Amino acid sequence: MSSPEQARRARLASMVGTTIEWYDYFLYGTASALIFAPQFFPDLSPTAGKLAAFSTLAIGFAARPLGGVVMGHFGDRIGRKSMLVFSLLVMGGSTVAIGLLPNYQAWGVWAPLALVLCRVLQGISAGGEWGGAALMAVEHAPPHRRGLFGSYAQVGTPLGMVLSTVVFLVVRLAVDEQQFTAWGWRIPFLLSILLVLLGLYIRLRVVESPVFAEVRAQDRRARMPLAQVLRRQPTALLIAVGTFVGNNTLGYIFMVYLVSYSVDEAGLGQQVVLVNLALGSVVWLALTPVFGAMSDRIGRRNVYLIGTALSVLWAFPLFWLIDTGSALLVLVAQAVYVIGVSATYAPQAALFTELFSPEWRYSGASLSYSLGAVLGGGFAPIVCTALYSAFGTTAAISGYIVLVNLISLAAIAAIPAHLGKPQPSARPVRT
């Protein structure tokens, strides 16, 4: 445990850094739902173009495990802080590059290929970013407040979503539709350079994690951290991946598919949809530290169970309200939906930290996060689009939501019941 001042800096660095990372990452999700199909896949039908745009989104998820393995290895070998700086530079550079890319009319087939390359770099960065940010926040925390401290890293996700949506919305309102299609959509991507500079300033002022510093001082670093995860803690890996599959699926349905569905099927305007997306993200943001702190009192598993139960119960009412075409009812639908998302996301940083041994913790957390994202959110918009196209009803999508939550429920049931509950010894929990 570090000093209160360093713990505060670590929480701030984790929150600000992940906010910038996810601002960049979510810009792509919003743009893939609203603009990339005509810009980079104009020769395809609307449905095929949308599927192609969502496929480039999924490619970023496929690249995440590579980032998780590489950055996890070096995060366990040379430190958490250096990898966080590296990930920020990679994400920022690839995001600015997207804002500069010529479209299909100017570059032909090279345009979508370059878009895919930028997305791969974003995926590599995201694969290693979260693990480092989560560990920096939790490893600086007092033992009885790891859930709350870890939630600061989690807050970066909805905060990045709010920021990217608001910037996208402001640009959309500032120009007409033709200008937005021609060049306005690029502005949010180019603004990323300013946020990256801010993030670097904050992250460079944080000291290394005290847990890693102790491991390094005692010369306990593993030569091949990933091999140790697979050999010594395969159950922990399966639990971590399984808990994240349902949450990540829920998150990307909210952040990407519902944007597309609300415009194309429910008949809402882009501005209304973006406002609702931002407001729903604010609910997610506000509840994340609440559920993080709750996980310190009643345990990680119980908080996961609350969120999963709500997500299953709300799977069908979600689309019933959206299909009314009422902006207010759509907002209500999304606000209730993200309560479940928040409850299953808030304790994640603390849970992943507690599941893995410090010597290979960065590798274990990053790989779990990356694999859960690939199996969950990476293909969620594609699956939802394909299900609706095949069956012509949102009931199929609701059934899909229920299914992935039931899969995660098996992993949640395997979480040790004592994780997150105050320990009499006030020492880190070993699993």
TrEMBL record:
Topological relation to the membrane, as annotated: Multi-pass membrane protein
Annotated signal sequence range: none
Stored Pfam families: MFS_1
UniProt keywords, alphabetically: Cell membrane, Membrane, Symport, Transmembrane, Transmembrane helix, Transport
Family from the record: Belongs to the major facilitator superfamily. Metabolite:H+ Symporter (MHS) family (TC 2.A.1.6) family.
SUPFAM superfamilies: MFS general substrate transporter (SSF103473)
Protein name: Putative proline/betaine transporter
GO terms, molecular function: symporter activity
Gene3D superfamilies linked: MFS general substrate transporter like domains
Transmembrane segments: 21-41, 53-71, 83-101, 149-171, 183-202, 236-260, 272-291, 303-322, 328-346, 367-391, 397-420
Main location: membrane
GO-annotated cellular components: plasma membrane
InterPro entries, sorted: MFS, MFS_dom, MFS_trans_sf
